[in-house]
Amino acid sequence: MQERLQDESYKSGKRVLLNGNQAVAEAVKIAEPDVIAAYPITPQTPVVEKLAEFVAEGVLNSEFVNVESEYSALSVVYGAALTGARVFTATSSHGLAYMYEMCWWVAGSRVPLVMALPTRSIGAPWNIHSDHSDVMILKDVGWIISMAENAQECFDLTLIGFPISEELNIPYSVSYDAFMVSHTAEVVEVRDVELPKRKQAYKILPNSEFALNAVTVNDARHKARKTLMKDLENSRRKIEKIGRCFLGEDFSLAEKYRVEDADYVIVTYGGWSGDFKDVVDEMRDEGVKIGLLKLRFLRPLPEEELKEISGDVLVVDRSALYKFGGMGGEIKRIIPEAKNVIAALGGYEIGYSEIKALVRRFVSGKIGEVEWYP
Amino acid sequence: MILPGNASCHGCPITIAMKTLDEIENPVVLMPASCSTVIAGIHPNSALKLTVVHVPFPSTPSVAAGMSRGYRKLGIKANVIAWMGDGAADISFTALKAIAERNEDVMVVIVDNEAFMNTGNQSSSSTPKYAKTTTDPAGKRENRRSVSLSLINYGYVATASVGYVKDLRRKMRKAGEKDGFRLLHVHCPCPPGWKFEAGLTVEIARLAVQSLFWILWEKDNKLRISEISKKAYENRIPAEKYIKLQGRFKGIKREEIEELEKFAVEEFERLLKLEEIL
Amino acid sequence: MLDPLISHPKVGSAGKTGEWRVFKPIVDHELCVLCLECSEYCPENVIEVRDDKIWIDYDYCKGCLICKNVCKMKAIKAEREFY
Known about the structure:
heterotrimer; A: 374 residues; alpha/beta; Rossmann fold; 2 domains; seven-stranded mixed beta sheet; 16 strands; 39% helix; B: 278 residues; eight-stranded mixed beta sheet; 40% helix; globular
């Protein structure tokens, strides 16, 4: 590792050992939000603890608000964002459920803000471990939703979240698996970049003398929702442009891993994508033409990449909606023959050998339309 | 400033209170779901010549705190006012208490019409005992408790009434000039909800004070019961005079009126004792 | 993007609310001492002083008669209106 740490190609930034939560905090430090508000919940707590430390040490000049609930966390940053402040919050699981009303309100208000969402199961019964139940309730609210595979992506996707959200006037979330990513240390390149100053479609000032979000009748609400959803659908070019500007030319909404000539493609997102890539490598060595498409964004959905896939498709989800996994049902709209597995909810341990066995079953045509694993 | 031709009901107390917002410099007014939301105008029109932000019901104190933090950080002079009904004070109470605790630079105005009036008169914690609402058709069974009294330990807290606008204006101005957490709790008798003639709003509000059903007080550095209420204690009018004008108390028994009267007097006397120590 | 979210101040946001009126307040300027109680307590904000006299904007006055009831000089009377 020491050798890699000194690798010349990483000259642009410094390389440090960080877990996912710390990587998010480092990126937030660069964005330097004017106001941060958050309420502790496992596994998100270390993000806000780290940011509180930065503020206390004086290396981050932010108003840090210790609120009494997640509902208020999003309410506080919403209020601050209206004044023209750059803002950040973070939550997980039940915290997201508790702030749900405000999730809709900030999206409808077209207010830019960034929220970290280490993904955790939602009870009952109580469970603090990873699955993607929480991010799935945010999926169709009207937010941009990115999904990090590792600590580096936690840093990268948080960093670009600020200019992306501020360019599109749509709130932005960065999700990453509880513990597997949030608490697992890896070497992260803390990029030496400066972000542009905050911009936003409108601000609320004492002399504005207009009313925001008054009661609507007729077509106003319809128009507001339509504009938001269309802007979100059409946001990929702007996201790519900003991503490439800060993260390099190969940035994209989805990572294509050995899919060129593949007969079989696994669609994944989140922390276990790395395990699936290892299985792809091993099976390629055995002569199986298999590849993987990793969704780096769930919203906007990388439809172009999904449409390009040839061969049999397996979507692996870590959440259960009615009948399908979190993304399986909607990916079937694009790829009707796609199979879907709902796996390992509530942090159920699924190791490399089990993942390999699952992929082998897929390749041998033994997985039905939708399957639960286990 | 509230503009003529708005959607308020005949004899609305809330618009009387809204007029006193002209005592505030650089106001930014937040409104949760309430009668005020409707009065404030249906898109694309606003009935207030002010900056207004409509927000979800329980979020008001916290959005207000966020705005005030934002203005402070960006160096913008503003007076953030969380303008809510007694219903919003109920549903946002945890957040309300939290912004008081953190001494956020927010002025809270509770226009208290003693029920959820925007949805057609359902009981709130502010609804008095024996008053009939659509969710307590036989009359409420619990006494109301004052939200301002429960927050008396935080910042500048005062009660006022639309029956005494000069006193209301003075407290509004005073609260507006201060920093940190401020709370103004304004009694707002509601003609359709309480079932009295629209022209009697001010008279009913004054009778509430004269009968001690509403007490005017102010806690700045020290708690002081306002002179109007001290005089009312000395020359108290019978509760019946206040209650009998309101259809919501229709059918109330003599002993029930006496019970309410006793409750009102006791509350005043408790406040008198509190005045000695606070 | 913002049109559905933003509303601008307008007199008559709920229309010509004078049409809601059943009783019309009429000021007797002989009795009026311009104490402005009526103006202070008018919920519709339609009472002001013009040419040293109380003036009521009947386009928007809803006729609640609070002005009549708060007038210490009993200078305001109500007249029934028919539409």
